[in-house]
Amino acid sequence: MEPIKIIHSTFVPLAMENIDTDQIIPARFLKATTKEGFGKNLFRDWRYENGEESRPVKEFVLNQRVYQGKILVAGKNFGCGSSREHAAWAIHDYGFTVVVSSFFADIFKNNALNNGVLPVQVSESFLQELFKQHPDASLTVNLEDQSITIDNTGQKEVFQINNYKKTCLLNGYDDIDFLLSIKEDIEQYEQQQY
Amino acid sequence: MGKTLFEKIWDKHVVRTIEDGPDVLYIDKHFIHEVTSPQAFAGLAKRGLALFRPDRTIATADHNVPTKDQHLPIKDRLSRLQVDQLIENCKNFGVELYGLGHPFQGIVHVIGPELGITQPGMTIVCGDSHTSTHGAFGSIAFGIGTSEVEMVFASQCLLQNRPKLMRINIEGSLNKGVVSKDIILYIISKISASGGTGYFIEFAGSAIRSLSMESRMTICNMSIEMGARGGMIAPDETTFNYIKGRHFAPSGEEWERKTSQWKQLFSDEDAQFDKEIAINAENIEPMITYGTNPGLGIAINALIPSIESITEEGERKNIIKALEYMGLQAGKPLKGMPVQNVFIGSCTNSRIEDLRLVASVVKGRKKSENVKVMIVPGSQQVAAQAKEEGLNRIFEEAGFEVRQAGCSACLGMNEDKIPSGEYCISTSNRNFEGRQGAGARTLLASPLTAAAAAITGVVSDVRELMEQ
Q: Which residues participate in [4Fe-4S] cluster binding (chain B) (predicted)?
């Protein structure tokens, strides 16, 4: 996993609530056996008329050139529904490193963290402030001091992340390396319990 | 201070804790299927690892499989590749597979319980959000992503933060025509599709105690639809009677030993929950959803809420968008509206009891000419039992299409899809945009309400058919 420290970027605003993982990546695209290539189907049914790539939905934010960047900003309860990690892969593969929302679904949050996508949970008022910004506005997300700042106004909010996950992301470690390193503990636990 | 049911099980499974971080949680049973496992197997191979405890993993093929002509090769190339990949991975890594053609094949959350694999006090995970189903047996069961599947493969453990705890007490007796699906749709409509996020929920109270295991599974199954990590119900005699004698159930002395342990699995009287909710079962009527998340539900005879009645701006925008997708009008009734499809199946409602409920309404009647009705048993075993009990004949005489076991039209990734723009009364769990196929419009309801619509061709109150 690529380490994440500071992300400085413009952002793509998706001002909708309860965006479920079936919208992020519809089930018919879950048939792949690798993790690559999901980005082209991110929000597929919102992005294209009848799913046809030749007919992009003009109003949809991913089809508006003025909105670019490594940060996706979305309404509350982002990533609810299915546990499909394909949703996190699609977001990562499309080029987003950070997702900002006022509320994340639990499984999505874990899946994002396990794939080098940082979920940044902000207050509802800060989120609404982000939606009011001009398309040129950039954000700075600093994982080290757990802050997100709107660069041109200086408005800043601190976000929560547990120390373990923070260390993993800052260094690009993954959980399996850690679990393998405590195998003796696991074996000892098994002997005691079973 | 006493412990909750959740805490008793969780604490027993903590291998170690990480300061200001998650717990290392030992996993007793790991179910896998073809869709969320291939990348985990590939990751394992890339690291040059074997499965740490292959005997704790059980595989089946369910999401992608056709529900017709299962003896023939799968037509869709990508689906076939994914199912073949599962067969190969299970062979290479030594995992027991109940694949197509096996008498135990079926929806992963149907087969675990019916085979007696799912037992009280266990930790159970699967790369599928509806793993919460298994919590009905008094186990901690939750859905995980593919990276986590790989973690369990590699170490039989997961790194998990301890969730907050909620208890929902449902007291009183159920009204006529009201079944467990209505209970859970009612709860979600009250606390919203995100009201349980961050929590693990224990369902308790006299209404829950009176339910069969199948009904309890329906409730725990949909706890994820309010955002909860999982749902659970303390085991009791109903649980033990269900498990006893099943294929992988303990027997003899082992049964005595296990049941005496299982009897300790309940929340102590002085246990503390972060949140408690009380529900009066008598207020629950047959439910149906009108929107594009499972929280947007109403009683069958109620009106869709008016836009003005929704004070929160974000929620108002959601409902306007949902109604537009659904082609429905605020302030109008759903009852009497024509539907084109009825789908009875999925990990929520495809067990033998669900099929019996449907048969109780349908027996001696014919389906409406205007609807296509698909009934899909959750497993080969359910299918066999339905046949033995004569339910198939009732369904076939009514003009239903009886299919073979699989996830089917719940999620639009196999051949069974609802055409764009058409309505489907569905016993499944999600009414998201496009969930049952691009453009499909899903109305979630109980097996009874689905059966009523199959007969009348319109959204109907099943109680009116039960009186006839």
A: 347, 407, 410
> Could you give the percent of chain A with pLDDT greater than 90?
95
- What domains can be seen in chain B, in order of their start residue? 5-275 (3.30.499.10), 334-467 (3.30.499.10)
A161-178 pLDDT, tens per residue?
999 999 999 999 989 999
Distance of CA A149 to the CA centre of its chain: 17
| Contact criterion met (CB < 8 Å) for B26 and A165 | no
* Contacting residues of A for B131, CB less than 8 Å apart: 83
Q: Chain B closest CA to A169's CA: distance in Å?
A: 13
Q: A77 at the B interface (CB within 8 A)?
A: yes
What predicted TM-score, i.e. pTM, was given to this entire model?
Answer: 0.96
Q: Which of B86, B104, B103 is nearest to B95 (CA)?
A: B86
Regions in chain B scoring below 70 on pLDDT: 468
Q: Burial code of A44-54, b = ≥16 C-beta within 10 A, e = fewer? A: bbbbbeebeee
Cβ within 8 Å, pair B413-A28: yes
Site of tokens 């009204």: B175
CA dist., res. B260 & res. B177, Å (int): 36
Q: What is the pLDDT of residue B19?
A: 87
Q: Could you tell me which residues are beta bridge partners of residue A121? A: A101
A70 in the same domain as A124 = yes
Q: Which two tokens stand for residue B311?
A: 């004070």
CB contact under 8 A, A110 and B145: yes
pLDDT tens track for A27-60: 999 999 999 999 999 999 999 998 899 999 999 9
B220 marked as binding residue: no
Quote ipTM for the complex: 0.94
Of residues B43, B148, B315, nearest to A110 (C-beta): B148
Predicted confidence at residue B130, as pLDDT, reads 98
Shared-domain flag, residues A121 and A27: yes
Structure tokens at A139: 């954000």
Q: Which of A27, A86, A164 sits opposite B22 (nearest CB)?
A: A164
Q: Would A178 be classed as within a structural domain?
A: yes
In this structure, the answer to whether residues A101 and A188 fall within a common structural domain is no
In chain A, the largest separation of any two C-alpha atoms, in whole Å, equals 61
Contact between A65 and B125 (Cβ < 8 Å): no
Subunit contact A20:B293, Cβ cutoff 8 A:
yes
B157 is in an annotated binding site: no
Rounded Cα distance between B77 and B13, Å, is: 41
Cβ contact (<8 Å) for B433 and A45?
Answer: yes
Instruction: Give me the residues of B, 92-111, that contact A with CB < 8 A.
Output: none
Whether residue B407 is annotated as binding a ligand: the answer is yes
Q: What's the whole-number average pLDDT of chain A?
A: 95
Residues from chain B that touch A26, judged by Cβ atoms under 8 A, are 412, 434, 438
Going by the DSSP 8-state scheme, the letter that residue A31 receives in this structure is: T
